Amino acid sequence: MAGLKSRTIEELKGLYEFKLSPQEFISEALVGEMARLTEVTGKEISIFLSRSGRVLDVSVGTDKSVKLPYMRVRRGSAGVSGIRALHTHPGGSPMLSSVDVGSLLSSRFDAMAAIAVKEGKATAMCVGFIGEKLDQARITGPFRPGRIPQQALMHEIAAVTERIQQLVRLHETEDAPERAVLVGLNAPQESMEELARLAETAGAQVVGSLTQNRDRDRAYYVGKGKAQELSLQMSALDADIVITNDELSPLETRNLEETLGVKIVDRTMLILDIFAAHARTREGRLQVELAQLQYTLPRLAGEGVSLSRLGGGIGTRGPGEKKIEIDRRRIRRRIFELQQELGKVAEQRELRRTARRENDVKEVALVGYTNAGKSSLLNALTDAEVRAEDKLFATLDPVTRRVELPDIGEIVFTDTVGFIEKLPHDLVSAFRSTLEEAARADLLLLVTDASSPTAGRQMEVVRELLSSLHTDETPKILVMNKTDRLEEQPEAGKDTVYISAKTGEGLETLLTLVAEKLAPQFMTYRGTLGYDRGDLLALVNRSGKDVFLDYRPDGVYIEARLPVEVIRKLGA
């Protein structure tokens, strides 16, 4: 009520004094007073009435809209809310707007009424009720203020109550998805489309989208005015949740929740939720839990000294320890425990890598943007039977499979977690040991969706993240996947191959190029090994070419063409 005179505020408070009988929908006197105050303020006025006829809330909006504070707080889970909402339209029509209808449906009000006001007097009123389906409305009227069918409208509320209870019982076994509105700041269309795919992967139904081009508002993300506009859009679309395209600060999240009255989920929280749903192995679950706790810790909100831990006796006086401090300590302790457990997992992974290196087993890591087809490619190359779906982050846990290549011997292919733009730092930190599979590999296959219009930008994201893992010197092959979706296949450049993991096209060419990249560089070696180094002698016989051995008193003289890696070991 900012900007209103104190006398006007007192008159508005006087609306709480009105008391209707259970048979009255709204009295002529209350309609007249709402119309008079609408003319005085020049703004819309809304009131909320209980079934007993008591005024529960009075709100003042602008000349075009009014906020409905009970919109989502009092929604009935088993039927209608038991509240009817009435508001004025200054100098306007009595017809209900799309926002009015959306509010009626989303909050399951008993009824929603709009009162047209002209020159301080009410001219007409329309009333909306939920129709034969939960997503349909039925509008009656317009009625003249002196001829409102009170009993008929109250009878309709009773009929709606019974009808909605039956509809809810029919739908209560259905697991309806959350209805989400996407919000982006300076976000291109491709980024919002990716956010929509993330939301759908998490199980939400995207019903709307809003973008704003401006400098970031550190209090409301998209600005207070845009947030209020979004509140009306949420009502019209009957949305349950807002998903932002950027990570929000605790202040931004709190302010948006207060303005919109719904749950706010930022991009980081959304990706963490998807990871939590798709993690299958113990290591994957540990990594996701660590990332979630690291994200949650700075966002804990307490409730002041009311949550202090108090005791009696000497030494326990004072405010005590707040619950939020206890929660923070518990989270820090759990983060430490998870880091210790993941450290052990990383040691085990390093032991396996060491064993492969000692046996000269080459490792090829499949890296790329999420949903580029890495798991499908691994299945096509190795019959790995890894779950592959047309979803973002369908697989998280690294999978390693062995393959025998001519002239190379046994190599292993490892599928790694997919990358994405704005990948949360907490996830990168938590999945460090998994990402090291790419950092330690002998060869990287950069798998890209060739059919994606944003393939170039996706590769930039992948290369930036790989650079942060210090893989600039690692040999790479650019694998352009999903060529079955292309009308015309471009000509492959150096270290680039076009394939279709789905049809098998180009896989032989890819394996040939992999063999060329992994083929050892041979050099001529001449030297003597002591008789106590039978392990190295076996390595020479296994990996050398044109091997000549001469057993002499001081050891075994060797002349052979050997891989450079083997020669290094012999020199050591």
Keyword list:
single chain, 572 residues, alpha/beta, Cytidine Deaminase, domain 2, Rossmann fold, six-stranded mixed beta sheet, GTPase HflX, nucleotide-binding
Itemize the secondary structure elements and their pairings.
Layout: H1 6-13, H2 28-41, E1 45-50, E2 55-60, E3 83-90, H3 98-107, E4 111-118, E5 121-130, E6 137-143, H4 150-171, E7 179-185, H5 189-201, E8 205-212, H6 224-237, E9 241-244, H7 250-260, E10 263-265, H8 267-278, H9 282-296, E11 308-309, E12 321-322, H10 323-358, E13 362-368, H11 374-382, E14 399-405, E15 409-415, H12 425-430, H13 432-439, E16 443-449, H14 455-468, E17 476-481, E18 496-498, H15 507-518, E19 522-529, H16 534-543, E20 545-552, E21 555-563, H17 564-571
Parallel strand pairs: 3-4, 7-8, 7-9, 9-10, 13-15, 13-16, 16-17, 17-18
Antiparallel strand pairs: 1-2, 1-3, 4-5, 5-6, 11-12, 14-15, 19-21, 20-21
Helix pairs in contact: 3-6, 5-8, 8-9, 9-10
Structure description:
With 572 residues, this protein is α/β, with parallel strands linked by helices. It folds into four domains: 6-171, Cytidine Deaminase, domain 2, CATH 3.40.140; 179-265, GTPase HflX, N-terminal domain (Rossmann fold, 3-Layer(aba) Sandwich), CATH 3.40.50.11060; 354-518, Rossmann fold, CATH 3.40.50.300; 522-571, no CATH class. The chain is built from 17 helices and 21 strands. The strands form five sheets. Strands 2-1-3-4-5-6 form a six-stranded mixed sheet, sandwiched between helices. It has a six-stranded mixed sheet with strand order 14-15-13-16-17-18, with helices on both faces. Strands 8-7-9-10 form a four-stranded parallel sheet, with helices on both faces. Helix 3 packs across helix 6 (224-237), helix 8 packs antiparallel against helix 9 and helix 9 (282-296) runs antiparallel to helix 10. The chain is elongated. The N and C termini lie far apart (83 Å). Belongs to the TRAFAC class OBG-HflX-like GTPase superfamily. HflX GTPase family. It comes from Christensenella tenuis.
